[in-house]
Amino acid sequence: MDIKIYLNEKKEIVDAALERYLPKSRESQATLHKAIRYSLFAGGKRIRPILSMAAFEAVGEEGDGILPFACGLEMIHTYSLIHDDLPAVDNDDYRRGKLTCHKVFGEAIAILAGDALLTEAFQLMTRQPLHAPLPGREGLILELVNEVAKAAGISGMVAGQVVDIESEGKEIDLPTLEYLHTHKTGKMILVSIKVGAKLGGAKGDPLQALTHYGERIGLAFQIADDILNVEGKPDVLGKSTGSDVTRKKATYPGLLGLEESKRRAAELVERAMDALNPFGPQADPLREIARFIVSREH
């Protein structure tokens, strides 16, 4: 399969669904809605929602039942990027080749746009009429919302962000770095896989296999990001490179060197694909996404 075609097709589906699900702008909220749309449609690859859709399909399901969760995951991811770019955190002026949200709308509106996306994500994931394709799944939906909240919050992404901030300019050991990466990036990637798998009815060994896959590609994804910050091309990335070194951030290349980081990312991808051995061709998109993670240029 051509992974680029697959990713583009799924991205179009996610983008169209986000357009449908976003609340309509009101005059009194015009600036907030502009800031939300500016960041949400700034050219993201939609990796997290696509992973949830691919996992949903890998266990034999199809249709739109996954889309409220897929779009909610992208809203949470976008909120995290808006806040990550703020002067108090990473102080980035550009993302995906465009000025960051706070540079266009100001810090206060950027903070509120992130807050709005986070809360709208959970409202979307629990909007009952949207779950008509998944009858009798109310208990499962509650369980998955709980899992997403855990992955995004103080036991997941936020915890990783805190360690990231507190590690700047310090020497840290490999276990701390792995904790940082598996929480800051890995938890949301893992829960994207689990949401798709569980909505598709996966239990027992298939769910465990997809969980192992998600854990491994989550860490591989962040190691690849670290590598791109060292040797990526700014015009392709849409932002400056070398910022991790400038800010003395904790990264795999900084701790282990570039070549060892590449070796570890490649090994994680191989182990992720090994976890998919029980699945047939329906899991090929997940296999190709794993390969794409370490070969991408942005």
The CATH superfamily title? Farnesyl Diphosphate Synthase
Strand order in space, largest sheet:
1-2
Taking Cα atoms only, what radius of gyration do you get, to the nearest Å? 18 Å
Strand pairing plus helix content: what structural class?
mainly alpha
What's the β-strand tally? 2
Sketch the topology as an H/E string, one letter per element. HHHHEEHHHHHHHHHHH
Describe the global form: globular
Descriptive report:
The protein has 298 residues and is mostly helical. Helix content is 69%, strand content 1%. It contains 15 helices and two strands. It has a two-stranded antiparallel sheet. Helix 2 packs across helix 6 and helix 3 packs antiparallel against helix 15. The longest helix is centred in the last third of the chain and has 28 residues. The model has no long low-confidence stretch (mean pLDDT 91).
Summary, kept brief:
The chain has helices at residues 3-21, 30-40, 47-58, 67-84, 101-105, 107-125, 138-152, 157-167, 174-199, 204-231, 234-237, 243-246, 252-256, 258-275, 284-295, and strands spanning 94-95, 98-99. The protein is mostly helical and 298 residues long. It has a single domain (3-295), classed as Farnesyl Diphosphate Synthase (Orthogonal Bundle), CATH 1.10.600.
